[in-house]
Amino acid sequence: MDSREPASLTFASVLEQLWSQLADGQRLRHSAFHQAVLATSSPRGPSARYVVLRQVDRERGVLGFHTDRRSEKWAELERDPRVALCFYGQSIQLRAEGRAVLHHDDAVAELAWKRTGLMSRRCYLAEAAPGTPAPLPTSGLPAHLSKDRPNEAESAAGRANFAVVTVPLQRMEWLHLAFEGHRRARFSRVGFGPWRGEWLVP
Fold first, then answer.
1. Looking at the DSSP assignment, which residues form a beta bridge with residue 35?
2. If exposure means fewest CB atoms within 10 Å of the residue's CB, which of 8, 100, 148, 164 is most exposed?
3. Which of 35, 52, 49, 9 is nearest to 88 (CA)?
């Protein structure tokens, strides 16, 4: 998209760019959209952390990521499923909002687990829950897994802790930073209906 030709911008072209960058973020580890800041509500107030983009469903407008269901993040989502995700790369900021859907004992989580590599499964083998206080710096992993990936049988124990969060998006804000002048648009929809756009002053 050429920032020198703002008149050529359309809602369709902006959406095309966004979904293309999100698709790259899911597939490519080095994509700027591979990770996003996830914002949730905690009893202490706002809470934010990075998550890895694992699912992009353009047809339904759904994004997804994996998490440990013992984490504070999971508990926060159980209390209040409203979330925001913020991506940034190549002078583009995307803010996306929706209500999280939690998957643990269902087909969505089972399929995601089967597609998860052994090194990624290792993250769910920590003996204590994420955020548990410890007397010394620790990975939380069993000693024999501190440097090695688990085998298939060893990794199975992590399935109980593994979960998937999907977010059917209801609102997106696109911001393109450019020397010639920034551009901004907001998209919203009801349910899984069509996206409706409006231009905003940056």
1. 52
2. 8
3. 35
Give the three-class secondary structure for 106. Answer: coil
Name the residue type at position 187. Answer: F
Residue 155 CA to residue 119 CA, distance in Å, equals 9
pTM of the model as a whole: 0.92
- pLDDT tens digits, 143-157: 888 888 899 999 999
Q: Do 71 and 131 form a contact (C-beta atoms < 8 A)?
A: yes
| CB-CB neighbours of 64 under 10 Å | 21
DSSP assignment letter at 36: E
Query: Cα(21)–Cα(32) distance, rounded to whole angstroms?
Result: 8
pLDDT tens digit sequence for 160-169 = 999 999 999 9
C-alpha span between 171 and 84 (Å, rounded): 9
Instruction: Determine the 3-state secondary structure of 2 from DSSP.
Output: coil
Closest CA to 32 of 49, 47, 50: 50
> What ranges in 28-87 are assigned the alpha helix state H?
72-79
Torsion angle of C-alpha atoms 176, 39, 189, 202, degrees rounded to 10:
-30
- What pLDDT is recorded for position 2? 44
> What is the distance between the alpha carbons of residues 136 and 114, in angstroms, rounded to a whole number?
33
By the 8 A CB rule, do 110 and 65 touch? no
SS3 of residue 35 by DSSP: strand
